[in-house]
Design goal:
With 292 residues, this protein is of the alpha/beta class. 44% of the residues lie in helices and 11% in strands. The chain binds adenosine-5'-triphosphate.
């Protein structure tokens, strides 16, 4: 099959490709994000389950094409989804409900917590480089090198001149990734302070959610304004034409999942792929099979 996948196949419930609404633009202010909004989507919550199922299938099929092309040696490109967000923004839900729809064979998932002793002994990008997706894969970073200009900045874990130099360094690193054939999909997920409170409260109400609760989340919550400032600077300094940031409002989980699914689909469509041609003669093989 030589089907090209560049054709517009955006569901009618989206007014425009989501990146056109969600791309960070100079002048955008984190403090003014309407976290409860659903930019570009004209449907509502009741439309979400069916659409999510449909689009997950589309995503899975494109991922399979990417994987197939690398297996056949035609293509060594990859896609890297970078998820950043405050606690409870829903990073885990994206991993489960969006990325979870793809074949695990072609996914490389990594979550980045507090660096281990070994990681601390290396440059902060060391663990990131070790987790990059191989050709043909979708990589998923649940937190990322951006923690090194977020939590590290907010808590002064290293002096300002050290974290201050990282923005340029990260831009150069991402340029290298893009030049090497990796498409970056950078997603900053935002919930409101009130929605975060409700989600944390739920974790304290339900025994099946206790495991998600971390008392330190309250301490971070108290630093919200400092985090907002750190996110603002991060977006301003590291949203580039080759690796732009997207701002996804996350108070409505059904919306953030649909939006990030579309961002991934767009990235894969942008690779302008087709199924790899057979490296055998189909007619001959059919004949051989019939006779076997
Ligand atoms: P999450 O909150 O993402 O669901 P979690 O509460 O289970 O995860 P971990 O995944 O173990 O915790 O670690 C996340 C924590 O690690 C966050 O508080 C994050 O800020 C912190 N962290 C990540 N990267 C760094 C870093 N480079 N330096 C310091 N702290 C970091």
């Amino acid at each position: 099959m030589t089907e090209r996948v560049t054709d517009r196949d955006l569901p009618a419930l989206w007014t425009h490709e989501p990146h056109t609404h969600l791309a960070f633009r100079p002048g955008d202010q984190v403090s003014r994000i309407d976290t409860n909004s659903t930019p570009g989507f004209r449907g509502n919550k009741s439309d979400a389950p069916t659409l999510q199922t449909e689009r997950n299938l589309r995503l899975a099929s494109l991922q399979e094409m990417l994987y197939a092309r690398s297996k056949s040696g035609d293509d060594n490109r990859s896609v890297l989804l970078i998820l950043q967000g405050m606690d409870t923004a829903g990073k885990g839900g994206i991993v489960k409900h969006v990325v979870g729809a793809a074949n695990p064979q072609g996914v490389r998932y990594t979550s980045f917590g507090k660096p281990t002793e070994e990681e601390r002994a290396h440059h902060y990008l060391w663990r990131i480089r070790n987790a990059l997706p191989p050709g043909g894969h979708i990589g998923v970073f649940d937190r990322s090198h951006y923690e090194d200009v977020l939590v590290v900045r907010v808590h002064n874990l290293v002096p300002p001149d050290v974290w201050g130099a990282r923005y340029d360094e990260i831009n150069a690193f991402e340029r290298e990734l893009v030049d090497g054939g990796t498409t970056l999909v950078k997603v900053a997920m935002f919930v409101s302070l009130a929605e975060q409170k409700a989600r944390l409260a739920e974790r304290l109400e339900r025994p099946d959610k206790y495991w998600k609760y971390n008392p330190a989340d309250i301490d971070e919550r108290l630093l919200w304004p400092k985090y907002q400032e750190a996110y603002q600077v991060m977006l301003e300094k590291t949203s580039t034409d080759y690796a732009p940031w997207h701002i996804v409002p996350c108070d409505k989980k059904w919306y953030s999942r649909l939006a990030i699914t579309e961002l991934l689909i767009e990235a894969l469509k942008g690779l302008n792929m087709s199924w790899p041609p057979p490296d055998f003669d189909v007619k001959t093989e059919k004949k051989r099979l019939a006779e076997a």
